[in-house]
Amino acid sequence: MPHKVKCPYCGYEMPLTYAEKAVCRGVFIRCKGRNCKRVFEIKIEEKTK
Ligand SMILES: [Zn+2]
User: Is the pLDDT of residue 49 over 70?
Assistant: First the structure.
């Protein structure tokens, strides 16, 4: 199941999905929320079980 990236400021769901095993840092994206438009880092931690 793909996961969705949400803006940490306004909770807007970005048109961006990532897979269960994705790991990401240092990637920045601008929020597409109407009144937000803030830039935030997409941080996806590796899941250790
Ligand atoms: Zn936002």
Answer: no
